[in-house]
Amino acid sequence: MKHVVVAVFAIFALLTGLATTAHAGGDSTLAPGHTTTLAGPCGSSYSHIGHHPITASSTTVGHLDVYWSSSTKRNCLVTNHSGPTYGVRLFTEARIRPSGYSWPSCPSSTGCDSGFYSYYAGPVYTPAGVDMTNRCIDVTGTVDWTSRTRTRIHCG
Fold it and tell me: Which CATH number characterizes residue 46's domain?
């Protein structure tokens, strides 16, 4: 259901001129070029701070897109499909944690989302109540069973 709502809103935003090009994609029906609304996938207070490729045999199949909100003091992650996987229903996962914490269980937490998706997994967030100011995060993402993990990144 979240995919239908996002797709309808994204098309509305594109048609009304509320969309802008960004590094992050979204599970929408928009053409490759990854257009997203001004608010972004994590919410209006989040800024895009990282774009990390997921590659398989030198082909980029997705990206880990990391966001930060100074008002909520939390990080957010979206694992986006790209290139040959964009629009193809494949196993996709996004996980985020404060460095030093255990990986969140999936799919029963705010820190993990997985399933067979065509455009993205997430958004997922660091735990509520944990001030991520000046703290590092670990992120991992999977697209079509190809994974990328980045540890101790975006440390404030």
Answer: 2.60.40
Domain count, the chain: 1
**pLDDT tens digits in sequence order for the chain, 156 residues long:** 444 434 434 443 333 333 333 333 344 333 344 444 457 899 999 999 999 999 999 999 999 999 999 999 999 999 999 999 999 999 999 999 999 999 999 877 899 999 999 999 999 999 999 999 999 999 999 999 999 999 999 997
**112 neighbors 95 (Cβ within 8 angstroms):** yes
Residue 137, in any domain of the structure: yes
pTM as predicted: 0.76
